[in-house]
Amino acid sequence: MKPLFALIALFFLYSSFAQEVKFGKVSKSELQETVYEKDSSAAAAILYRKVNIFFRYQQDLGFSIIRSVHERVKVYNKDGFKYATVAENLYKDGGKRETMGSLKGFTYNLEGSQIVKSKVKSSETFKTNLNKYRDEEKFTMPSVKEGSVIEYEYNVTSPFFWYIDEIPFQYDIPIKFEEVTLAIPEYYNFKTAVRGYLPLNPEFSTQSKSINVTTKADRQGGILQKAVADYNQGSIKYKENKTLFNLVNVPALKSESHSGNINNYRSAIKYELQYVKFPNSPLDTYSTTWEKVAKNIFESESFGGQLNGTKYFNDDLGTLISGLTSDKEKAFKIFDFVQNRMTWNGLYGKYSDLGTKKAYSERKGNVADINLILVSMLKEAGLKAYPVLISTRGHGIPLFPTREGFDYVVSSVELDGEKILMDACSKFTAPGLLPVDALNWNGRLIKEGGISEEISLYPKQFGKEAVRMMVSLTPEGDAKGKLRNSFTGHEAFLYRDKYANVHKEDYREKLENAFGNLEITNLDVKNENNCYKPLLESYEFVVNGQCDVIGDKIYFSPMLFEVAKENPFKSDIRNYPIDFAYPRHKSYIINITIPEGYEVNSLPENTSVNLLENAGNFNYSLGKRGNTLQLKCDLKINSTIILPSEYEAVRDFYAEIIRKEAEQVVLSKV
Description:
By secondary structure, this protein is α+β, with helices and mostly antiparallel strands. It contains eleven helices and 37 strands. A hairpin with a 2-residue loop joins β34 and β35. α6 (327-341) packs antiparallel against α8 and α7 (356-362) crosses α8. The longest helix is centred in the first third of the chain and has 19 residues, at 2-20. It is globular, with a radius of gyration of 30 Å.
């Protein structure tokens, strides 16, 4: 009987909560709440969320989509203040655009025994033009402090009846109760794809609706007007298909180590329009294939149209490749030229914003401006080059063949039968090395006429960091020596990208703070701006108290200050894959001179540990020659994606690394 009682209790929870939550009816108990009961770490929680998506008909315009939002949020501490700012991404195309309106909102605070509320004004929304196809409109709730409850309602109206925005069911803060409703006229047939790990259990129903038509109209309205005339009536009755989602106590989606873009695993549902069928009208198919998507994008003036004109760069190109004979030389020379000439304005997009000719002249542009210039120059040089569409890590993974699934474009050039990917937007990439944000599963290579093919974005080249140390220990337990790091591949890219604008003295302080008692002198970095060579970092160091001196013995880890301190994988279970982004290899060779008058009492044993079949391996080898110890230690991760079912093996693998690196050498006084 327990399952029956649980269902009954859940039913009453749904119905009672839904009846109680009315806009403006915030209780003292909600304001007095100091922590979220089911997740004490939450900086804020959504107490109630209601989203209603429905189609509205206007005679002259046809159907549009309305998304009505009502949210009540509890702020527990200062880290929750950011949830007082709400932003909507609004799509626009030509003369059509999504709009946000009907804003109503209050911040509630408890002052003494009184509930005081502060109103947000609809005039206090701020709109930003993100690019040619996107605006952002946002508002910030007033008078927010620790303990506040904020509540707001607004609508988003979209004329793009064929596209329903993805509906998330999970945020990075917990949700106590949420209700999502979709009401879709029978004329529209959508297919759905569910993402994430929450059980959604939708409820389906239908209801009768009608549309009154009084005059003839163009566009969508004309289709329904024809149906009215044929049926000799002034209104049309139709069915509305309704889907209801009720969820309670939705946990926060928390990012863990090596999770890639956590949004890829957020519980959500995506709708794609398959076809439209109005009364007495032919079937209008919207469901598409990758071939159709590629053809539509390529035929756009802002994409394929930008690959036609070449006069604006022909003189520069001729000078650039004069005397070069190999395709590789030409490709690399053209890449370097575009990378150095152009400055990325920070805007993503698969479509050119300024137009390649204007962007070339102004030496700046968005992602598509720059990389379509690169494709054009490569093609004009006689190379087999094509644009590649990408959905970045922040944009998610395309679930359907859809133009909206991509937000980035790079170049592919074929050299010696291999496709090499290039992105000239960053100053720190190289041929075959894309920014980490672009390493998101697969891209779509687009050819003339709409021909396309899937292409893997994950690199085969290892990102490597090689650490070499020469160290001398003192009888007092101090260590001094020299260190040299070598970075290649994505490890070098990340270093350059992170520290490009950091002053050397500030970087030295960062290193010292990261390693504790480390004092660094003679810091030197070579090849900072030459992405074709390893980035080399070297310095001298002193570490006071590196070793523990107890009586006549000295204890220390041969990893010294490089010892791993904690396991990056702490959870007992994991619901989404481990994403390392790129294969990686970190190696150490550490030579340690022991103090005069001491001898080795004991050494950690050598070991080799494999992760799964060939996903990675860890090797630890420590030997002695005279008064010198040499540690060789390396960690390789060969697989970029590891499934949740294999999480325990990864966690245990890293636990073994932590344990091994912490083992100590024991020296005894002679």
